[in-house]
Batch of 2 targets.
Target 1
Amino acid sequence: MIAGQLRQGYYQASGTVLLRKEASRGGRSLLLFLRGFGPLWAGAPSAGGKNRFGGGAEPMVWGSFSLYQSPSRLYLQSVDVKEDFLQLRGSPAALACAARLYRLTADEAPSGCENDGLLRALWSAAVQLRAGALPAAVEFRYMWKLLAVMGTAPSLGYCAGCGEKLARGGLFTDEGILCGRCAAQAKGAHLSERELLALRAAASLPHDKFVEWASKCAGEEIFAANIKKLSSYFRNLL
Ligand SMILES: [Zn+2]
């Protein structure tokens, strides 16, 4: 965040800690993702060499953050922890998935502007992982939503070439998913109808239905392959 972007004063907002960096002179810098503000960096000064925020200054914690903007810097004053998602530590796959989603958000979400839709999607992803949804399906869903927020998510329903409905699978290229007719000369990964249906379900089912479906669904390899494909869409943004 650009120093001085906020007016000097006190702020309170709910959200989560995306990243933690140890600062050179004790204390920490935290990348917070806050409702109404989006991602922003805040200093979390230590008190006598101790972290005075306890577990509240850790990534994946959700809570209400009290902040102070000085003329030069934004500081964290206190955290009222609402949810720490400690249960995720019981599943290495779920925890690793959550860590990747946090890293992706820290790297890709534009700072300096609110992004409440994405913040809700990140919260939902953590809840879905805790509820036992297949991590690869949660990861695909969240990545697709993050790309959708930026307006660059590939359509899972219509051909990127001609706009026809993708009724029988398609070819996943760097410019979108193409139907059989448009795919003739293109390079990409073939998607069967079954695979495309799974991706569509992951991206578009409402939260509760998604949790129910993704707790029972197989097809981890489908999601793993297409998570890789979606990653190239982030590179397209550079
Ligand atoms: Zn087409």
Target 2
Amino acid sequence: MKQVLTIVLLFTTLTVFSQVGINTTTPSDASVIDVHSTSDGIHFGGMLPPRVTLAERDLIPVTAADEGMLVYVLNPPNSQLQIWDGTAWQTLFPQSIEFSAVLAAWDVLGVGGFGPSPFNASESSASVTVGGLTRGSGLTTSGGGSANSWGADGWESGLPNESQANSIATGKFVTFTVMPNFGVNVSLTTIEHYNIRRSGTGPTTGIWQYSINGTDFSDIGAPIIWGGDTSATGNPQAAIDLSGIADLQNLTSTTTVTFRIVNWDASGAGGTWYINNINGNDLIVRGNLR
Ligand SMILES: [Ca+2]
């Protein structure tokens, strides 16, 4: 009778505190399953979570009760471990791997005749999709264009006065876009120092703007007086700090950022304005990735 009781208690205990060890006979008391990489110290392995494509992931009939479910989403080059938080799939990325990177850069060395529009980035991060430098609808390329520079002529608005608003209304601006790729968190930090060349009748003044919906633009800083050097030396411009702009932090693939440089106060239709060649890349957008 005593032996039978002992056996019953043992089974009860196993039912309540059952643990599974893989490659170990002594699973941790804190675990229900304890997976060791090796049992012999020679052969090692990892643990594979279910691997699915994005489309396959979306076939998983998750509900709020499935909070905590893990899958590895195959979506090169941004494949990633994701967890279901009860409402949405979230990417698992440790904060510690945040790093600063060049997101997009253009080198105008060798560009002539004002350059193509769009002018694709010379270099870009695999974490973002970049839309090339594009001339606004009101700009022209009727002159020959200076060597080693990208830009336009035709900056005069044709309206009674030259102003930021009139240049926006008449397409006297250049744009480019930056969009984080799927699964990446991007915070824009800096537009590095650059150089502007203009002719004597080209626009004297401009301003950087951004938009996160492609329609509504906000100014970045104050208007900039580009400078009077009309030679190939051009006019050095200070770097622009983007890190304090809340709209440009912690972006995901749902947001396309459009940058725009609006120029005004040109005094002749043939007046030119260019992003000018300096050593290495000539327009560089940096950001933090995680
Ligand atoms: Ca250059």
